[in-house]
Structure formats: structure tokens, C-alpha cells
Amino acid sequence: MSEIKKIKNLKEFSTSADRFEGANLLCPGCAHSIIVREVLNATNDDLILSASTGCLEVCTAVYPYTSWDASWIHIGFENGSTAVAGAEAMYKALKTKGRLKQPDREPKFVSFAGDGASYDIGFQWISGCMERGHNMMHIVLDNEVYANTGGQRSSSTPIGSSATTSPAGRISYGEKKNKKDMISIMAAHQIPYAAQVAPNKWKDMVKKIQHGLAVEGPVFINAMSACTTEWKFDPKDTMSISDLATDSLVFPLYEIID
Amino acid sequence: MAFDKMELRDIEVWDGNFAAAQALRQCQIDVVAAYPITPSTPIVEGYAKFLADGYVEGEFVMVESEHAAMSGCIGAAAAGGRVATATSSQGLALMSETLYQASGMRLPIVLNLVNRALAAPLNVNGDHSDMYMVRDSGWIQFDAYNPQEAYDLNFIAFKVAEDHDVRLPAIVNQDGFMTSHTAQGVKTLTDDAAYNFVGEFKPMNDMLDLDHPVTHGVQTEEDWHFEHKARQHRDLMVTVMPKIQAAFDEFEKLSGRKYNIVEEYDMDDADVAVVCMGTSVETAREVATEMRAQGIKAGVVGIRVLRPFPFMEIAEALKDVKAIAALDRSSPNGAAGMLFNEIAGALFNTDTKALLSGYVYGLGGRDLTKAHLRDLYKELQANADAGKVTTQLQQFIGVRGPKLAFL
Q1: CA geometry: angle at A17 spanning A12 and A21, to 5°?
Q2: Which end of chain B, C or N, has fewer beta carbons within 10 A?
Q3: Which domain holds residue B18?
Q4: What is the pTM (predicted TM-score) of this model?
């Protein structure tokens, strides 16, 4: 069972134990770090984490430093989900064989990846992890664009966006494809839980993360991550921009159970 | 222990794939993440069946691609346990990105690589183009010439790779079909003797040590990247070879079977020598013996360890011969062959006057026959007699049409 954390108010929540240090290289106003802190603060469980190549990875583990006070792995752009799945398989093997160093503790396995690393290049790896039923959670930090490489469209980029590879111009309004419905695709894997969350709605998000950590089996979370650099808003406006997106239902919050 | 041991006869009739699968069982692999590809598939099928029958304890993760197979192996190895997989050809090509990641992250994974040609054109048969493709990936590479060696070298590979002074992944090569699907007598170790030889897995920087969190796979740029790569190369150049020799020595004491960094056959007084890998080594040895009956002092040097490359050992083995043939079973696609280049490099600054010529053979599983090798030894003798290379430097053996030669 997952160890649910009791949270009284935002002040206590935002200042509680950090397994993700504020000392990182993410942009001021970047929602990635807010999402990660909300996920890590939602539980007292031991965590085995991964990040796929992207902003979160390049900004939080630059040798000889690390921002992570929980075991963390990065391999490549497409395979962060499978890294955690491999670790989860080793956990099961060592549990069977009686070789766990802390046999009474039950870590949770969580992979973080951007929308490019999830919707596009890592799609097959995530599908495999969900289909095989690993006891893990995959969280998309969905800023709807390849931010780390400078603003190219991904299959999460919504229609009408101006990305560097689908720019709005004299005769084009920009991106012409609708955003890929990743949650429905993941739900079709018959996983126990899939949800869309946003860090500005932190109580809703924490509840969903806690539910996801408590269920047995693969969980898929799509988290809206407002990008001050590529969405081109003032870093102080991250929360108000996020409120606009969720309150207008441009980015609806919902869950699919069983 | 919750698994059953297996009573093996002293000599079993196994093909190379089953011999490797039995070695994985005896090493009690914790996690195998794998994807099927001809001709390596029976290795991981074997592990799965041993698991299903209760002869091994662990997790078999049947993933959706070879890239995911090695990705899962990396995650499992970083978590802290004994990890193995198998692949061939296109599968290796797909996982090649992760091979560099596994070695750079210093994770001791063992990969059984059943050598097969690379497309196009698509071909399932054995040549060494997959082995060659990843030779600079930072993995230790062993080469087996028959099922017995495919079995034995797996134990050696785990012992060396998991040594805390090494912590590098290792590949055990065997020839597709010629070794992998050809059943021969294989002398076995008992389950206890085999497991005791490789020993208990000793974790290091394991993610599952929850009291000591670790960060694997960091970012480095021009400030630190070079130092990491240099350290890895240093360990391959300095640390690994003595560890391999020590493992060979210990294995000989256990089994009576002696392995060497380079395998010399009739090289003591040889005038002409063939250098090759895989099943061709055994063919060349038979032909060398025949040639000696005809008055040609022929020898064979087999490469047992391809990475780290046995630069000094090769120079020593070849220092007194008059003519050498380097046999490459991979198309160099616009260059001299890999073995030709490595041997040339090993000999260049020495006092040897040996003449070196290169041969490309056996692509896509084309046979290298004894007749080919008889002709080859005669060419080498002609070179030795003339005191110069009498042919072009690079020749193709056994390809249709007019004789193909370059350089």
C-alpha cells in the first residue's frame, strides 16, 4: 500500500520535505519543477525515478551535481519508461530471491518524460510498459512542444499553435493537426488508472497522484506544464496562464478509472 | 533456494544457443529483458523455459523491441542485480544506441551476440558485421568458435564484467547457425561449480538501496565528458586484460579447459599464419595441419578477445612469421578490413618484416571451405618466398564472378 501523506494547506505542502532540490537549472517560472515537487511531496514512499532526455533531465543532473534525493536514472530520449520497468523487474526478482536490502519497504517506480519523449519518440516504449503491466507510473510533463530543442511541434502540439517547424506566417495559421489523444490511447491498454492533471489545481493533482501510487499496475498521468520560454509568457504568470487553460477547459482535468 | 538444480551429464549434446541458455541458468540471472531475433532467439527462450520449469529464479521481461530490451537491462542492472540478454544483427543495430549508454554508465550486463549479417539485402545467416558494428561501443567482446566455448565464455564474461574494478558490459559472440544451431558435445560444469565460479552478485551504486539514493546517467558537456570517456578507455586498456587472464586461469583450474587472449595454433615455428575469428578458426587449424604435411609451415591465430584488442599479444604471436593473412568476415565498405588494420597497427613499429595481406570472406553465411584456405596458405607461402606481397592487398574469397581484389 502506498503511504498517503496528510496535507493541510499549500504553505505546508510547498515547504515539506524536498527530495527534489530547488537548486536546478530549469527556467524561472517553469512548471516542470512545480509538477515534480507536487508528485514527490504527495507521498512518503521510497521512490525509484527516471527522466527521459529533455529539459527536466538536462537541468537536474549535471555532473558532478544532482537535484535528486531519491534514486534516479536517465538513459536516453525514448526509453525512460523502460528504464523504470527494468528496475521494477529487478525489484520483483530480488524480492523473490530474498536479496532486497530493505525487504520491508516497498518503493514506487515513476518515470518523467516530456510530450515529445512520450507522445512521439518514446510512444512504443510506454505502450510496452503499460501493456506488460509493470507496477509503475509514467508522468508526461506536457508543454505541447519540443522545448529543450527550441520549440518544434510534437504530436501533442494543439491546432493553431505556432511552432518553429509549423510556424504561423503570411499564409499559414501554424499547426494544422489536432493534439494526439494520448490518454484515450493509454486507457485502451486496459490500465487501472489514467488521468490528466495540472499543477495549478494542486489538490486535485495530489489526489490523483496518490490514487495512482496506491493502485497496482501501470498508471499514466498527463500533466500540463506551462512553458514560459516557448509559450512566451512572463515567468511570474505561470499559475494564471495555467488557470486560464484549465478553467476554460482548453486543458480539461479528468480521470479514467479501470 | 526455491529453484531446483539440474543434473547434467559430464558431456551433453548442445548447440551454441542451448549451451548459452544453460550458462545463463547456472549463473542464476536475476533479470532477462529480451526480444526475439533469428538466430539468437533460442537463448532467451531457454531461459524462459528454465524459469517456467522452476530451474531458475528471476524475471523474464519480453519487451517490444531490442532497443527496449537493452533499455530494460540497463534499468535492471542499475537497480542492482545480474542481467543478461541475447540478440543478433538488426536487433543489435536497433539497440546500438543503448550499448554506448550501458557501457558509459558502467553497468555489467552480458549480451550473447549470435553473429549474423546486416541488411540490406536481408539475410539471417552468419557473418561478423554485427560484431564489427559495435566494436567501439565500450563493451568487452569475447569470441567463441564452438558451443563449448559459447558455454564457457559466458561464465568468464560475468566474472570479468561484474568485477568492481571493471564494471563494464560484455558481449559473447558465436557464429549464427554454424555454432548457434550445430549440436556438439559440450563438457558441463555442475550447477554448484558454475555458480561458485561466477559468485554471488555484489551490487554497487544500486538504485534499490533505498537508504543510499544514487543518480545514474548524468549530463556532462565539454567540462567532464572527456574525463569519463578517458577513464573508461583506460580501464579497458589497463585493467580488463589482466582480469580476463585471471578469469581464464581460474577457469582452467576448475574445468581443465584453457583459454588465451589470442589462441595460437602451430605458431612456434610458423612461416605463414592466418588470423581469423569464429568457426573459421577450427577450419583453418585443420588446413594448417594439412599444409604442414605438404611442407608449408602453417599456423593459425584466433582472436579470443576482440575488445580490448590484444595489441601486444597479436604482435608477439606474429613477430617471427614471414607472411600473414587477416581474414575479415564483414564488408569493410570502402576500406581495408578491421583485422587487417588492427594487425597492421600492432606490427607497424616492431622489427618484424612480416608481409600482411587481407581477405574478405563468408558474407551472409557463405561457406569458407578447406579448399579456399589451402589456396590462401599457398598464396602466403608465395609471398614469403618472393619477399613481397604477390597479390593485391585485399581479396574476396568465394564470391561469384571474376576474382575480386583491391588495393
Answers
A1: 115
A2: N
A3: 11-255
A4: 0.97
